[in-house]
Write a structure and sequence with these properties.
This protein has 302 residues and is an alpha+beta fold. 22% of the residues lie in helices and 28% in strands. Among the domains are: 7-66, no CATH class; 167-267 and 293-297, 2-Layer Sandwich (Pseudouridine synthase). It is built from seven helices and 16 strands. Residues 92-242 form the Pseudouridine synthase RsuA/RluA-like domain.
């Protein structure tokens, strides 16, 4: 379900044109309810909230919804250079560099996070909305992070994540020569009770599925493209280490840290449906310089 017509953002309001068959109904309120829930696919939770807050109104043939109200960021804006890979009124995709987390930990420390930088970007753009990351990346993993810019987008994108409709394609450089027969790793992951920061393959853990899409081999390493079906903490790192191919640089999971100062993992592509229109959006994130250099040094033939 999605909206295929034209739309405009006017301040706090989103204006849609449902068509005369809806606008001309005797009971416009009921016609609008059915159209929003059944055709557009608005989450019922949000519809009820907007109705309660008088956030739905007709203006001629236009249906207006308060989807862009003023909201606190929820995190202190801290300026840091931010590479924006995609942006519209509903979504933002930021390219996360290595060395920063997406969000802070429970200790409430002062460490810079990607959320701080996104809040500062919103502030500089004159946008006042909560910072809403839809997924996360490990601190030293690079690549695209998807943000919802309003509650409507957050509810729709969160649902798509739960239903595994958002595709995340990663590039990883691992130790050793991965054989072609290894295409799917379906092994549950749980906490390692002997090491607070680690995860491990565990029969009592949560289901975790990683698909290996392609393999390029050099004498000492393999370049993999992988797609996550689930999103467990450290999933690619745990799965590849368990299979005897830890990521280069990933000392936490048995990788050789000497040639590379972090795990050699980069989110290369993010594919998702636009929360309003349903349009398929594919975002490519350029490789960071250290990964490019590692690939060159590893003497991959292609």
């Amino acid at each position: 379900m999605s909206y295929q017509g034209s739309w405009d953002k006017r301040g706090e309001w989103l204006e849609l044109i449902p068509g005369k068959s809806i606008a001309g109904q005797a009971d416009q309120e009921e016609a609008a309810r059915q159209w929003l829930l059944e055709t557009v696919g608005m989450p019922e939770k949000l519809y009820r909230k907007l109705r309660h807050e008088r956030g739905i109104e007709w203006r001629g043939d236009r249906l207006r919804l308060i989807l862009f109200p003023y909201r606190e960021y929820g995190v202190e804006p801290v300026w840091h250079e931010l590479e924006v890979l995609y942006e519209d009124d509903f979504c933002l995709v930021a390219n996360k560099p290595a060395g920063i987390n997406v969000h802070g930990d429970s200790t409430g420390g002062e460490e810079l996070t990607l959320n701080h930088a996104v809040a500062a970007y919103y502030q500089a753009s004159g946008l006042y909305t909560a910072v809403r990351p839809i997924h996360r990346l490990d601190k030293d993993t690079t690549g695209p992070v998807l943000y919802a810019k309003n509650e409507y987008a957050q509810l729709k994108l969160d649902e798509d994540m739960r239903e595994k409709k958002i595709a995340r394609i990663y590039a990883a450089i691992v130790q050793g020569q991965v054989q072609d027969g290894l295409t799917t790793i379906d092994l549950p992951i749980g906490k390692d009770r002997h090491h607070r920061s680690r995860r491990r393959v565990s029969l009592t853990g949560q289901q975790a599925v990683t698909h290996i899409l392609s393999v390029e081999r050099s004498r000492y390493a393999s370049l993999l493209r992988l797609r996550l079906e689930t999103g467990r903490t450290h999933q690619i790192r745990v799965h590849m280490s368990h299979m005897g191919h830890p990521l280069i640089g990933d000392s936490l999971y048995g990788g050789n840290a000497r040639p590379f100062g972090r795990q050699a993992l980069h989110g290369e592509r993010l594919i998702f449906a636009h929360p309003l229109t349903g349009e398929q959006i594919e975002v490519l994130a350029p490789w960071p310089e250290d990964m490019l250099q590692l690939k060159e040094d590893s003497l991959f033939l292609s």
